[in-house]
């Protein structure tokens, strides 16, 4: 892994299903156990309880709220649902996503949201095609990355074949450490990323 010395934020990338969200959740638990306050959200697969097939994705906030991000296209859906933007076979519920996710990435610089040294950790899982249908999300993420007090752990898709301009914008920031997650490295990365985040907080 490339050294993150002097960097502020960590971006995780990797193939779909490699474990980026699981890695974020493990890092969150370690930070929480250390008494470091963290805010943000992650996305989670939703599966049919009988067939086990994937039927969509939910937004899950770190304080336990949950709501739909996307659901598979199907018969009997309302006109509103059919009008939603889509990625592959999934319809993206922008309104639900914004209601849940946006408040979690607004940095509230009061004592309840920052560490004793003035830094705040925010998890953004993920910055991908579905989430980027929301212009408000793009604006909020840009603003978040511009705040000196923020230390961000975010996940982004691999974009080697099909570039996503905003994702590439984040990857190319000088204050970002970009780490590719693989099945072989995802477990050992926990302690390394926690160390990067702690170093960032100390330097705030």
Summarize the structure.
The protein has 204 residues and is of the alpha/beta class. The protein contains six helices and nine strands; from the N terminus they run βαβββαββαβαβαβα.
Structure description:
The protein is of the alpha/beta class. Helix content is 30%, strand content 25%. The chain has helices at residues 20-33, 79-82, 94-104, 135-146, 165-171, 189-202, and strands at residues 9-13, 38-47, 54-61, 66-72, 86-87, 90-92, 120-124, 150-155, 176-180. Helix 1 crosses helix 6 (189-202). Mean pLDDT is 88; it is low at 1-5 and 111-115.
Overall radius of gyration: 17 Å
Strand arrangement in the largest pleated sheet: 5-6-4-3-2-7-8-1-9
Structural class determined from secondary elements: alpha/beta
What is the general shape? globular
Q: Distance N terminus to C terminus? A: 23 Å
How much is the average pLDDT? 88
Largest sheet: 9 strands, mixed
Order of helices and strands: EHEEEHEEHEHEHEH
Strand content: 25-35%
Low-confidence stretches: 1-5, 111-115
**Count of DSSP H/I helices:** 6
The beta-strand count equals: 9
């Amino acid at each position: 892994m490339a050294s993150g010395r002097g960097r502020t934020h960590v971006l995780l990338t990797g193939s779909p299903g490699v474990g980026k969200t699981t890695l974020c959740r493990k890092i969150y638990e370690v930070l929480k156990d250390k008494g470091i306050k963290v805010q943000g959200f992650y996305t989670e697969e939703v599966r049919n309880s009988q067939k086990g097939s994937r039927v969509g994705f939910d937004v899950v906030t770190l304080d336990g709220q949950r709501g739909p991000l996307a659901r598979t296209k199907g018969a009997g859906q309302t006109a509103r649902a059919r009008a939603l933007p889509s990625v592959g076979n999934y319809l993206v519920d922008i309104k639900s996503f914004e209601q849940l996710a946006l408040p979690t990435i607004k940095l509230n610089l009061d004592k309840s949201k920052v560490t004793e040294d003035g830094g705040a950790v925010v998890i953004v899982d993920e910055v991908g095609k579905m989430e980027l249908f929301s212009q408000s999300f793009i604006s909020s993420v840009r603003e978040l990355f511009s705040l000196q007090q923020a230390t961000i752990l975010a996940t982004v898709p691999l974009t080697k074949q099909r570039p996503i301009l905003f994702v590439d914008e984040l990857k190319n920031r000088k204050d970002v450490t970009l780490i590719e997650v693989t099945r072989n490295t995802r477990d050992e990365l926990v302690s390394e990323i926690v160390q990067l985040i702690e170093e960032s907080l100390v330097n705030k």
